[in-house]
Amino acid sequence: MAKRFIITFILVVFVYGGFAGLNIGLVMLAGETRAYTDIAREQQDDPGTIYGPLFNNDHASYKYALLKERPADVIVVGSSRALQYRQAFFSKPMVNCGRIVASVRNTLNFFDQLSKDPKPRTVIVLADFWWFRKPLRKVTGGHVFTHSTGTERSLNMFYKPFWYMLNGKINLRTVMSDKENRIGFRARQNDIGFFPDGSYHDKEKSISYEAMLADMKARIGKQGLSYSTTLRQKAVDAFIHGVDSLQAAGHTVIVIFPPLSPAMHDILSANPKFGYIAKTTEYAKQFGAIDYHDPARLGLDTADFEDALHTSSRADAILLRDLARSNTAIRNVINHDFIEAFIASGKPTP
To answer: How far apart are CA 170 and CA 297, in angstroms?
Structure first.
């Protein structure tokens, strides 16, 4: 009886261990277990390299590594809504730090780190309104800077690659191929991922106003779209104090509330339960923040957005052009000729 149990146990360990080994082997082959510093350095050494992870989603740590490996005069900071700002828009070296922050606390962490850098930078901060929905104690108290120096490890790496192969999400031949300049499953499979400047390349999307409207209605009152009519002044004050500290360290900081899609703007502006949004932007504007929430301000329509929340690169170029008209710091770092030609082309991405 004991012998049969031992044999069965060994077989189970062998089968499941082999299965897990196969999966983690594919993950390693795709490059998703490499250290962020190595990935960021390779991207700077070979500008054609795309980093598109499927399982390794500690994007903030990757962006901190990229910030270290890519010397830049301009930094674009924000959530995923900042990812379409490209090096081509700027006349000075730029690094896109989209996805490096997702709250007031994350942003204060970033400000703390950047304030230690003696090199003056032009820092464009794209602030999301939902960062300021919660009270100060929940978003900023005792913020401490921590980030991984390696890569994220998760149980998904030990079993999901095989299932993704079965449903066609991962092509074994593509992963096993000698494909150069592609790190991560998404990059190898579909050429999707982060460019060396930190911007993100994805498949072009085309979503109608009606589809965006339906998506927004389904999400109203949930997650980042929870209701509130209260101005969290202390949260805004903490954010502004961080901006002031960064400027005192020699950096030039421009704070922007980026455009909302027409569908999203229509829903939020018509619902009094989201009263905190207008109160937040009006209060922040007293300290120099610029409110671009209304897409009509820049003449943007549905085609200028990837979805209800995310602008296209063309929309971001239009914003930079408008901002440069009144802001000398921006005027001195953007590539005017490229931006004008790109906007005139009508293309959503360069």
So the answer is: 42
How far CA 151 is from CA of 41, 49, 147, in Å, comes to: 15, 18, 10
Q: Which residue, chain included where needed, has tokens 């939902």? A: 130
User: For the chain, which domains are there?
Assistant: 1-57+150-187 (no CATH), 59-147+204-345 (3.40.50)
For residue 244 the two structure tokens come to 């002031």
Bridge partners, residue 282, by sequence: none
CA gap 77, 111 in Å, rounded: 10
pLDDT in tens, 28-65: 777 888 889 999 999 999 999 999 988 877 888 899 99
* Range in 75-79, 306-310, 319-323 the model is least confident about: 306-310
Instruction: Give the model confidence (pLDDT) of 247-281 as tens digits.
Output: 999 999 999 999 999 999 999 999 999 999 999 99
